[in-house]
Amino acid sequence: MAIDHLDGRLIVLLAREPRIGVLEASRRLGVARGTVQARMDRLQSQGVVRGFGPDVDPAALGYPVTAFATLEIKQGQGADVRAHLTTVPEVLELHTTTGHGDMLCRLVARSNADLQRVIDRVVGFEGIVRASTAIVMENPVPLRIIPLVEQAAQDSRDS
Amino acid sequence: MAIDHLDGRLIVLLAREPRIGVLEASRRLGVARGTVQARMDRLQSQGVVRGFGPDVDPAALGYPVTAFATLEIKQGQGADVRAHLTTVPEVLELHTTTGHGDMLCRLVARSNADLQRVIDRVVGFEGIVRASTAIVMENPVPLRIIPLVEQAAQDSRDS
DNA sequence: CCTTGACTGGGCAGATTGCCCAGTCGACAT
DNA sequence: ATGTCGACTGGGCAATCTGCCCAGTCAAGG
User: B4 to chain A: nearest residue by CA?
Assistant: First the structure.
């Protein structure tokens, strides 16, 4: 299960040059086209690769400010809060967590001033007891997956 | 600047069905193929769409546990800590933030037990004073961008 | 020794891509 | 009002790629 070395190389290749087709990929990897097709099909049907959605930069859309908000929820209001946050476009991501807060969400805004509006909209909902926000200043490691893919590919090679 | 309504529709379409080509997209959107090509080129050169990297699911790779760690850094150690965390494959993302902690990072692990190993590796570095970790239980809103794209497209339409 | 699954190497028709062109249309400046 | 410029349309062309199929090899497991 998981992925083998060839899968790893394929994913890394796709990550680096997403626009290449199956044929070109097979050349780069030194395998037959059918093999690449089969691997891709398997990776997708197994859910390892969910898709190839466009990677949109919120900053380029006019939302250069990112923040993380930790929310504390009133008992039993979880579902309502989730539904509420789902309706806010600036909420890019929402997790329920263990620890001090109950939920953690990623927000974006047009400016620091605009962030206030977003936060007001987020917390302006009965059921949210308290919120603490951390504004992102720098993003030294943007969301990445390749190192993990390589790790996973290594592991299966060793075994 | 930003994006107009057609850009928005194009991005949403690509997000829903990433495998369609330029020709198919132009049919769906009811515009000429050249227009779609031009829009895609512009979106990419403007950096709105960074690329079409494969969307890999860490869980399917054998890393079903996600956590967020807030790190407190010793003065002046920022650069070293960043470099350190970059070498840890399980660190998917790292931000420097305002607020109580100094950094926030997203981690994945093979299990709750494995998370301990990852955290040890992350914080086992001189320069990190304190770390508090929140394990993700549920992910009601997976990373999404479409609502924001639609919002941005609306805004430009109104103006 | 046989079966199974994965991979190779090749073929084929149909669809798509990259590229180019002329003409239309609306916004904007002179 | 006139001219210019950028964006979009509709079409064409050669080269390439895709989806699909097939036979043969090879290693692993029974």
Answer: A61
Q: What is the C-alpha to C-alpha distance for residues B92 and B107, in angstroms, rounded to an integer?
A: 6
CA distance B101 to B131: 8
How many CA atoms are closer than 13 Å to the CA of A40, on its beta-carbon side? Answer: 21
Q: What is the CATH number of domain A5-54?
A: 1.10.10.10
Domain ranges of chain B: 5-54, 58-135
For domain A58-135, give its CATH number from 3.40.50.2000, 1.20.120.80, 3.40.50.720, 3.30.70.920.
3.30.70.920
**pTM, full prediction:** 0.90
> What digits encode the pLDDT tens for the residues B108-143?
999 999 999 999 999 999 899 999 999 999 999 999
Residue B21: CB less than 7 A from any atom in strand C: yes
How many Å apart are B36 CA and C24 C1'?
Answer: 18
With beta carbons under 8 A apart, name residues in chain B contacting A135.
97-99
- What's the pLDDT tens digit per position in A26-38? 999 999 999 999 9
